[in-house]
Each structure stands twice: as structure tokens, then as C-alpha cells.
Amino acid sequence: MIAFVRGTVADLTLSSAVVEVGGVGLELLCTPGTLAQLRTGQQATLPTSMVVREDSLTLYGFAEEEEKAVFELVQTASGVGPKVAQAIVAVLSPDGVRAAIASDDVKTLTKVPGIGQKGAQRIILELKDRIGAPRGAGSVGVPAAATAWRDQVHQGLMGLGYATRDAEKAVDAVADQAGPVPDVRALLRAALRSLSKA
Hints:
InterPro entries: DNA_helicase_Holl-junc_RuvA_I (IPR013849), Hlx-hairpin-Hlx_DNA-bd_motif (IPR003583), NA-bd_OB-fold (IPR012340), RuvA (IPR000085), RuvA_2-like (IPR010994), RuvA_C (IPR011114), RuvA_C_sf (IPR036267). By secondary structure, the chain is α+β, with helices and mostly antiparallel strands. It is about 45% helix and about 20% strand.
């Protein structure tokens, strides 16, 4: 298994990063929060988890080891695959996941796309004794991933030639549309519409 990847960030998309390692570009599926910390051309070290299927080998990249550990643990709950596990770590911090499970907080878990009431109850039931207690203070909320879209949309607008001030105004104009799991593409389109009206 591939435990981590270290190399130059060759490319970034809305859902993945390509890291060049020894002349080979490895594509890692990442959360918006992780992608927001990466820059093309810079060195990066990302903990990774490899998901093996009959027809594919998929690498998931994470900002930190703790995120990877939670990603792998939640997949041991029945009905949770890698996509839902990735959504969990995108919406909640590792401590947020621990706190929600420890306190039977179904409402927090159902904020994650793909998790309904029954799914949240099943995750709590199956993982409560294994996930451990939250490690930090005040942890249930949404992590940097919730605000990472701002940086991505801002960078996108700058890349299209808009001035910094205009890009900032456009990002502020669409902030109320972000929701718990921001759709960066949709927000970028909305920001472009707001700029065309101005």
C-alpha cells in the first residue's frame, strides 16, 4: 500500500491533485480543504489511502494523518464507501466526527451528503466504541474545508484575469450560496455571473 506521497504538485483540479513522484504523476482524490492548501509547482507531502476495486486503484490524499485515519475507520461501518468517507472528512474535522459519534449527534452526521438518519445511526452504533474521544477543544463544527472554496474561487477568478478586489467582491457576493459542502464549480459560475452584472 502507498502510505504517503511526496513530490511536486503538477496539476490541481476541483477534486484532485496530480503529484509528480520520480517522473510519474500520481492522481490523488482530495477534499476541497486539502486542495486549497496545495499550489502547482510546489512540493507537497500528503498521507494517502489506496482503495482497491476489481476495476480500479484509487488514491485518496489528505492534509494530515488524522484525517486519513478517520477516512479509513468510517469505511469499516456498513454502508460507508470511500466517497461517503471522503465527504465526511470534507464536512467535519476528525475531532468533529469523533464528537458527533461520541455524543450520538445524528443531526451533525446528516449534514454530510450521502448520509441519512438511518445511516448516521448505524455509523454511531458501529463506531462508538472504536473511534475514541475528541482530542481538541470545541470541535464539532466545520473545518477549513468549509471556507477553502473561497480561496479556490478567488484563485479561479484571478486566473481568468480579474483584479484582486473584483475577485474578492465576487467571492463575498456568492458566500451565502456555499452551504455545508460547497460546490466550487457552481460557486465559480455564480461569481462570474455576479461580475458580469457589475
